[in-house]
Design goal:
Radius of gyration: 15 Å
Number of strands: 6
Largest sheet: 6 strands, antiparallel
Shape: elongated
Number of helices: 3
Strand content: 15-25%
Structural class: alpha+beta
Length: about 150
């Protein structure tokens, strides 16, 4: 693992947030939301860069017949956010993206803060994008598992 990923992982460990390395420049974190059962996040940090990217994925695919409704829902969500954006990726899945400038001294705390805030946003936004997909939000509600609480709620 790279230096940045090691620093992020060390900080997450101190905050009791389990993570799994994925290559040299990525960590994967599984979070159980309050409304959306499983949120998967990948933290991307290249040692040659002073920035991080966090991608929240593992959300439902968007069927072609629902694309317009889902885009409207994601646009509504995006209008209320400045630092996290929802999109439909090349695999037709909903993804939330956060990017931030960091330094070696701030990378761990910033990654943690954005991870938790992003998980909260995805959890909350699921109540808008799931109905646009024609899905029942109750089918995606958590039933059990380890929950990582978002600070500040």
């Amino acid at each position: 693992m790279g230096t940045h990923i090691n620093a992020i992982r060390a900080h997450l460990d101190t905050m009791s947030v389990p993570s799994t390395p994925s290559g040299e420049e990525q960590l994967v974190v599984q979070i159980r939301g309050n409304k959306f059962a499983q949120i998967t996040a990948t933290i991307i940090a290249e040692d040659s860069e002073e920035n991080i990217g966090i991608r929240f994925w593992n959300m439902p695919k968007v069927p072609a017949e629902r694309r317009g409704e889902v885009l409207e829902a994601l646009n509504t969500i995006n209008k209320s956010l400045r630092w996290c954006k929802f999109l439909i990726d090349n695999d037709e899945e909903i993804v939330a993206a956060i990017d931030a400038v960091v330094t070696a001294q701030t990378i761990g705390p910033i990654a943690h803060e954005l991870l938790m805030r992003g998980a909260y946003v995805v959890d909350d936004a699921s109540q808008t994008f799931l109905p646009a997909l024609g899905l029942d939000v109750a089918d995606y509600a958590p039933t059990s598992g380890v929950e990582v609480n978002v600070e500040g709620e």
